[in-house]
Amino acid sequence: MPKRSAARAKLPPAAQGYRMPAEWEPHESTWLAWPHFKGDWPGKFEPIPWVYAEIIRNLARHERVDLIVNSERAEKNARAVLEQADALSDNVRFHRWRTNRVWTRDSGCIFLTPPADKDDASLLALHFQFNAWAKYPNYELDEKIGARMAKAAGARVMQPVSGDHRVVLEGGSIDVNGCGILLTTEECLLSNTQQRNAPMDRAAYEQLFADYFGVQSIIWLGGGIAGDDTHGHVDDITRFVAPNTVVTMIEPNERNENYADLHANLGRLKNARTADGQKLEIVEIPMPRPVVFEGRQLPASYANFYIANGVVLVPVFNDPNDRIALNTLAELFPTRQIVPIYSGDLIWGFGALHCMTQQQPLLAGQ
Predict the structure, then answer these.
(1) Whose CA is closest to 348, among 303, 299, 304, 314?
(2) Which helix (H) or strand (E) holds 345?
(3) Is pLDDT of 284 > 90?
(4) Residue 293: strand, helix, or coil
(5) In this predicted structure, what is the pLDDT of residue 4?
(6) According to CATH, what is the number of the domain 2-361?
């Protein structure tokens, strides 16, 4: 029996029955990191903690919030802000770990759930290597966060590899339906710009997704949106909202620089098929008008929403299309509260609600 268990442990997660659940499946908690690096929001840092407080206040009503703070002093400051905003509760759990930045979707681990018939059921945490989107030099603290999250969650840790290469992968570069389909972009994973994994080609990524996420089908989109310094994360353009349904961003203005890529992505989605050969149901949401600060276009997109227990947090930008996005998501999630979060200042950090969050799934039977 020990030999059989050891052999099983060497199998990739999918062969052991593990899978990455969809975001709308039940959560144990949401992981966040309290903002502290003013260089991510130069000249606009002051409102950011208050945006976080609003996010935490809405999340903590529905699930635990695991909040990473840089120090005892940082925890004290965070508690003060949360208390003023009526967001401090027993459902907020603090972890004193130093970080470089706060984009937990990308620096944190990705949790997988075990098969229902597994006796010693526990979460499996995929701790991908993190290198700050192959762009920034300061990431040594963030690279440790995935393992720390896994330990706190009581999850077994696995570091994914392709051949003898430890894989770099950010959570914002993929989206799954929990039933074997994964969305990603060629711009992020296959481009020579901000290249994460030089040894890996399309086939190597598809094998990685099959082995580690239990994915049978990959939908490769093309390019991301303007202003995205991750170089093409899919969570700014197209998201699953049900097993066979995606929300995708469109740009009605043909002169806008996002028009061609988003139009091409829509065509790819129309040609995509589910595992049983069915077409996807595609729900279109128009982009907000360009958000520009200090002459730079920012990656403002309604697709960067976050689905939690009982609630969907949606970035809004004081734009006429805010209402279209909110109404569309309300129709798609009739049993969840749709909460708009003003993100006009937040997006100056080049990320929004999905970028800052990472879900910890609830184990079956808990």
Answers:
(1) 299
(2) none
(3) yes
(4) strand
(5) 44
(6) 3.75.10.10
SS3 240: strand
Closest CA to 67 of 101, 38, 91, 32: 32
1: confidence class by pLDDT, cuts 50, 70, 90: very low
List the Cα angle 318/320/326 in 5-degree steps. 85
Question: Which pLDDT score is estimated for 119?
Answer: 64
* pLDDT tens-digit series, residues 170-203: 999 999 999 999 999 999 999 999 999 999 999 9
Q: Whole-model pTM? A: 0.95
Is residue 268 within 8 A of residue 221, CB to CB? The reply is: yes
With vertex at residue 103, the alpha carbon angle to CA 99 and CA 108, rounded to the nearest 5 degrees, is 75
From residue 149, how far is each of 14, 110, 118, 160, 285 by CA, in Å? 21, 10, 22, 16, 34
Predicted pLDDT of residue 6: 47
For residue 337, what are the β-bridge partners? 311
Specify whether the CB–CB gap between 237 and 287 falls below 8 A: no
At residue 303, what are phi and psi to the nearest 5 degrees? -70, -15
The residues, ordered by sequence, that sit 6+ positions from 49 with a Cβ below 8 Å of its Cβ are 34, 35, 77, 78, 81
Count of other CB atoms within 10 angstroms of residue 11: 12
So what's the pLDDT on residue 143? 97
Residue 138 and residue 341: Cα distance in Å, rounded?
A: 29
Cα end-to-end span (Å), the chain: 28
Residues with catalytic annotation?
355
User: Residues 86, 152, 210, 193: is their CA dihedral positive or negative?
Assistant: positive
